[in-house]
Amino acid sequence: MSQPVDRSEGALLEVSGLSVTVTADGRPARAVDGITLHVGHGEAVGLVGESGSGKSLTLRAILGLLPPGAAVAGGSVIFDGYDLVGQGSRALRRIRGTGISMVFQEPMTALNPVVKVGDQMVDAARKRLGWGRAEARDHALQLAKQMGITEPEASLSLYPHELSGGLRQRVMIAAALASRPKLLLCDEPTTALDVTIQAQIIELLARLRDELAMSMLYVTHDLAVVAQLCTRVEVMYAGRIIERGPVTETFAAPSHPYTLGLLRATPDVDDVRAELYAIPGSAPGVRSRPAGCPFHPRCQFASTECESGDFPLRAVSRTQETACAFPERIEGRARVAPDAETGVGT
Predict the structure, then answer these.
(1) Are 297 and 306 in contact (CB under 8 A)?
(2) Cβ atoms within 10 Å of 285's Cβ, excluding its own
(3) Tens-place pLDDT, residues 216-268
(4) Looking at residue 342, what is its pLDDT?
(5) Which domains does the chain have, with CATH numbers?
(6) What whole-number distance in Å separates Cα of residue 218 and Cα of residue 150?
(7) What residues in the chain have per-residue pLDDT under 70?
(8) Order of strands, edge to edge, in the sheet holding 82-83?
(9) What sign does the CA torsion over 95, 98, 100, 106 have?
């Protein structure tokens, strides 16, 4: 069997064998199951999958912000040469902001509701970069303008609840960038926004990625966003990475039935009469994951061989890996891939 392709040399972020358990009713269960991924300097990587696949827990484990009841059970998170797993809260606070920043799905949970948004940005720059108030204030205003925030002086003098949803999201991204991080973690930051604002935010992130040469790990269930923003994609299911590769190649020729299902579920705006596709069944909970390939109960190509054994990632080309033992079964199947320019199905 082919060995997984190793392209992590010199990566800014390298996650190896990361496992996260969650405890409910006094019983731990493995929600993230030994995943390995990396993000290069200046690279944007998408982490995609359905809700409950472990994407958000992975981001929070990287930054040491796991919720109560969740804990890292194994593996390493190497950022810029340093292993973050097992570090104390003081060491992690030094990394947050200057090294790694995070943009959350809901800005009202990340922004302090009783502090004006401009002061939050200024405080981040002063604390992380050691700047004086005047210099940090100028930096905050410049970032606000980059975010397309009109009348930045007036907007930054407001509290979070006084801003619209789209403006709050822009402010949260600006606050995450205020300390000039090397890596930006994004946890579905546009899910709650209307499509117009969502497109503006994605375009803004793409521009900042290029202008600042900033690395990015972007969690989403929206493949169109990944097509617009990322160069590589990691597909996650039931706590595992089940496919990875360059976005263009993976979306054009997926090698795992789950990835194919996600692509087929992308609406095609050029054919409004086409029946919407949905992957049959539902993703298993952390306590009900099946033996063998975790996707086999929902897979139209599954056979008895898929019901037991291990299914690690293996190389299917120079740049792509899959955890499917029979990728040839989906070759030539009809598929719908999000267009990298428009972000919609083609």
Answers:
(1) no
(2) 11
(3) 999 998 898 999 999 999 999 999 999 999 999 999 999 999 999 999 887 76
(4) 42
(5) 13-99+181-330 (3.40.50.300), 106-180 (no CATH)
(6) 26
(7) 1-9, 97, 192, 268-274, 332-346
(8) 27-39, 13-24, 70-79, 82-83
(9) positive
